[in-house]
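Quick one: structure for this chain?
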Amino acid sequence: MTVYPVGPAGPRRPRLRDLGITIGRFSPGRWNAITDVAGVRVGQVTLVAGGGPLVTGRGPVRTGVTVIVPRDEIEADPCFAGTHVLNGNGEMTGTAWVEDAGLLTTPVAITNTHSVGVVRDALIADRLARDPAFEGWSLPVVAETYDGFLSDINGMHVRPEHVAAALAGASAGPVAEGNAGGGTGMICHGFKGGTGTASRRLPDDLGGWTVGVLVQANHGQRHLLRLDGVPVGERVPATRVPLPGPAPVTPAGEGSIIVIVATDAPLLPGQCRALARRSALGVGRAGGVGENSSGDLMLAFSTANYGLGDRPPDGTPVPVLMLPRFALTPLYEATVEATEEAIGNALCAATTMTGRDGRVAHALPHDLLITAMGTQ
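Got it. Here's what it folds into:
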């Protein structure tokens, strides 16, 4: 099996902005990635092996895992966080505690549907390896989308050592997109999809805060795809670029998308929840409608406050910072923009992939995308 610790080998594919396509009015951060939020790190392991007919347990393999580390020692120094469900045919473990406590206390991992358990267990094992004396409990956050159209999903090919490698390789800076990490075998709006990321930095007069988004895009119908309001899916129909085939195993569009939003703006849990809800608007602007069998799950966290895991012996209140309500609207707009662009980046970065039983998911050709955008 070929294992790529930080995504597939080879040069980075052009992203939306490399093609002259911009989304919204705010500017991205340095990397145009979730890692533009200071302290946030991303690690990925991409698993690709074999071809031809499906043989459960042997392949072909087109899968992986993506890990987002909100900040160092997240267990001891958690972040305020909140979640949102646009459509619930999916899984994101640990969210009952996130919603009850308002805190994110673990890294966030994204993988395929049938590997959620092993990834969750591996995150706990990592905690124990770093702190052998740990006797508490851990409720890791692990989300999924289904890659069984291209990959041997029942073969359980994501292993604990892959999660460990993703954690060990987690870093700031550029993030591998498209056929990378948990997004390796994913399909988006009838094109090859996968991992995508983007960010926005608000101007100083609006606070100067940064919002970063990472998506695992495995959702959507071709005819609904829109970028910056342009009906790309109508202009690049199946007669130009074939839909995934042969023999789709589920109706078109019945996949899923996971959206993780990070910000350095000082937000309380309810405000993080509001940010997560706005990311669903970014999914909608790109053409997602929360189809019946789509698991569209969002989580947002703020890195601004520290000491939320402290236990003062006398119960002394912990001081926290928060933005006033009137200052939230620009953050909402930035989140919507970054989510839409992250989906577009996943599409641009992905390359055509042949998986199990000769099934093919075609990439969105850049020339056709540019032509479609230019005819608005």
